[in-house]
């Protein structure tokens, strides 16, 4: 079967790999209909994670069940499903508590599993024609049959629940003001989720005009940080107080783009922007391994965070991978009911064969390349 294979930094190719197959009785194999490229793939693509050549990327997957293992009870051949990017077992302490991003079974007890992601277990990615799904009864979210809402449902694998998770980590309540740093797909989903949760005003910070325009389209207030200090711009619009809640949807990316050794830019700006006793939700990734990085400490994701200021303001912070399963059923039902249309973020629908060009454009943040969906059937 064809799949997107990582070769070296800034190089992926679409090649033949061994077919996905049932390996354990509780597996299913999915024929992929839609799979997305994520900002998280770029950490590997840019060579910052020590990903081995030969890895098949792709953790945002949906499709139709093609083959069912003998131990699967709930899922049937022909079911249309979306796969939360987290691979969970369903029976460990963390999965039982809903913390499926941190499954203790699938990856030798280390910080959860995912498809096609370095250090997240042995699971191949779904930027391919087929995908093996382990613990399939637990890991498949079933969808209405047919082709309706394909692009909205595809975003249930990661970025819609991740954006929602950011608002949950920050504890966004109706009527509150929120700032979201990063207008990439994840930041836009966080802003959209904050508005769904009834936030009164949502500020979205970036410097890319096309992405800021999308933020404005959904009813958020765009803040261009290249035109002046973002914290000050937001304070000026909130009576000097800052926002009630704040979200980091940038992560490590900012430190690399700015070329500084340990700037922790976004977190420190958030600490300044959020009012005293507010809270931060951090879903931007702070990559813990950086073989090509500028310093030894950067390899461990160390950053100079203004802890004194954080303490002085009595702030709280939640971090981590999204526990997609905690939200994706409800978010699916909002899509079905016509109450949410996250696909406003999708800019490109391309055949799998065009993945190398798509990675190149998305990695460069070329204007208009917001979210790429790959469709093996095209
Ligand atoms: P992205 O890299 O396209 O988006 C990042 C955006 O941040 C870009 O638009 C960029 O212009 C902007 N940016 C850069 N520096 C900035 C700064 N200093 N201030 C404000 N904005 C700045 O990718 P994405 O797909 O939106 O992903 C964003 C982050 O979320 C990545 O780190 C990704 O790994 C992470 N992520 C986390 C989870 C999770 O479960 N926690 C899931 C998916 C993605
Ligand atoms: Zn993703």
Automatic annotation (TrEMBL):
Chain coiled-coil ranges: none
Sorted alphabetically, the keyword list is: Metal-binding, NAD, Oxidoreductase, Zinc
Which cofactors does this protein require? Zn(2+)
Lineage of the native species? Bacteria, Bacillati, Actinomycetota, Actinomycetes, Kitasatosporales
**Keyword Metal-binding: yes or no?**
yes
**What species was this sequence derived from?**
Streptomyces mimosae
Q: Which domain of life is it from?
A: Bacteria
- Boundaries of each Enoyl reductase (ER) domain copy? 7-374
Which molecular-function annotations from GO does this UniProt entry contain? Answer: oxidoreductase activity; zinc ion binding
Under the heading Pfam families, the entry gives: ADH_N (PF08240), ADH_zinc_N (PF00107)
Database matches in InterPro entries? ADH-like_C, ADH-like_N, ADH_Zn_CS, ER, GroES-like_sf, NAD(P)-bd_dom_sf
Identify the CDD domains for this entry. PFDH_like
Name it. Answer: Alcohol dehydrogenase catalytic domain-containing protein
């Amino acid at each position: 079967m064809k799949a997107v294979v990582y070769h070296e930094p800034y190089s992926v190719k679409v090649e033949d790999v061994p077919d996905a197959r049932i390996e354990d009785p509780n597996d299913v194999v999915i024929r992929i209909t839609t799979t997305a490229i994520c900002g998280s793939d770029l950490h590997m693509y840019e060579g910052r994670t020590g990903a081995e050549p030969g890895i098949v990327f792709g953790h945002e997957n949906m499709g139709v069940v093609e083959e069912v293992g003998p131990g699967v009870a709930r899922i049937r051949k022909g079911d249309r499903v979306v796969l939360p990017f987290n691979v969970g077992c369903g029976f460990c302490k963390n999965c039982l508590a809903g913390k499926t991003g941190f499954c203790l079974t699938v990856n030798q007890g280390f910080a959860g599993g995912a498809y096609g992601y370095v250090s997240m277990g042995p699971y191949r990615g779904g930027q391919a024609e087929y995908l093996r799904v382990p613990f399939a009864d637990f890991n498949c979210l079933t969808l209405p049959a047919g082709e309706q809402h394909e692009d909205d449902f595809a975003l249930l694998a990661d970025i819609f629940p991740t954006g929602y998770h950011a608002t949950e980590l920050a504890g966004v309540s109706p009527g509150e003001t929120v700032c979201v740093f990063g207008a990439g797909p994840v930041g836009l989903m966080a802003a959209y989720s904050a508005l769904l949760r009834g936030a009164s005003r949502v500020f979205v910070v970036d410097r890319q005009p096309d992405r800021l325009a999308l933020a404005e389209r959904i009813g958020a207030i765009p803040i261009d940080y290249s035109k002046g200090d973002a914290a000050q711009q937001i304070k000026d619009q909130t009576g000097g107080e800052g926002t009630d809640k704040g979200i980091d949807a940038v992560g490590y990316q900012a430190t690399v783009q700015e070329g500084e050794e340990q700037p922790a830019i976004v977190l420190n700006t958030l600490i300044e922007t959020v009012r005293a006793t507010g809270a931060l939700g951090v879903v931007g990734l702070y990559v813990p391994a950086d073989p090509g990085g500028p310093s030894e400490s950067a390899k461990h994701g160390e950053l100079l965070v203004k802890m004194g200021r954080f303490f002085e303001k009595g702030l709280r912070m939640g971090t981590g991978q999204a526990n997609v399963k905690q939200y994706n059923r409800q978010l699916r039902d909002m899509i079905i009911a016509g109450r949410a249309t996250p696909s406003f973020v999708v800019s490109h629908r391309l055949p799998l064969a065009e993945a190398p060009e798509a990675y190149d454009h998305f990695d460069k943040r070329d204007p208009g390349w917001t979210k790429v969906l790959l469709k093996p059937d095209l």
